[in-house]
Design brief:
The structure is a single chain. The chain is an alpha/beta fold and 324 residues long. Helix content is 35%, strand content 18%. It is elongated, with a radius of gyration of 21 Å. The relative contact order is 0.13.
Amino acid sequence: MVTTAERAHPAVAWALSDGRAGNVRQAGALAEALGVGAMAEVTLAARAPWSWLAPRRLPGAAQAFGAPFAASLAAPPLVAVGCGRQAALATRLLRARGAHAVQVLDPRIDPRHWDLVVTPAHDGLRGDNVITTLGSLHPIDDAWLARARMEFADFAELPSPRTALLLGGPSAHAGFDLVAFQGLLALADAVAAREGGSLLVTASRRTPPALRDALRAHRGRVPLMAWVDDTDGRNPYPGMLAWADRIVCTADSVNMLSEACATAAPVFVAGADRVRGRPRRFVDELLSRGRVRAVDERLDGYIAIPLRETGRIAGEVRARLGLA
């Protein structure tokens, strides 16, 4: 895999994004899953005024991302997969030069500007060239989990059952405060103590400082593996997903819930009552399907079938674009 935006890419598939972790992950996962050949990740930084209005095309849009990207338009890839508004402009430009353009997430303008648009069903976008997913795209499958178990093999020393607690944070659609966090952590600690297990807890980019401080200060009754921020070293999130016997995830994060549900572990969602709008529709769909359950005082296990949309979506994209 190549990661650069400074030169032309010989790869067959490009995964384009603005560098934000969620966008990188979704574009890369789909581009890789297409299986059409070598894949390159391209990080974009649009200049004004294009950065303000992307993905709308203004005069001179070929120069929106600088001279290296403009030069690369002369040799477009077979498939360009973008995620985010900046990438949506880039995939439009590449489509005009002959690439198959696939845009992940609602571009907020007419989908006809792309060959295909892939968007979560809870966003409500529909159209002849729109493919809907249940949740977000990601690379998590059996092979990914097996690699994570090997990479974080020391997690095997933690007593089972291992409860992974994935923490998001407040957003435009969700509230999540210190009191709620402390209650959730106390509940997970109590369940683990009753069962003789352990806790694996990770914060995320949206977890507020007060919650991070509370996690760092926590002294529970069971063995705890906690990651608060980069000062704790590399994020063991993959290992937590791979080694967890159960997963508790806050309801605010569509990405984390999607990835948790890709494992074979039971998943319990916390704080659904504080989530509104599109993310709430996603949580409600998971609850109605029985893939997740609401957090309760027992967190009893259940048979969980992994929910993995990336492979299905890649197959549909290949079929629609004639790549199969």
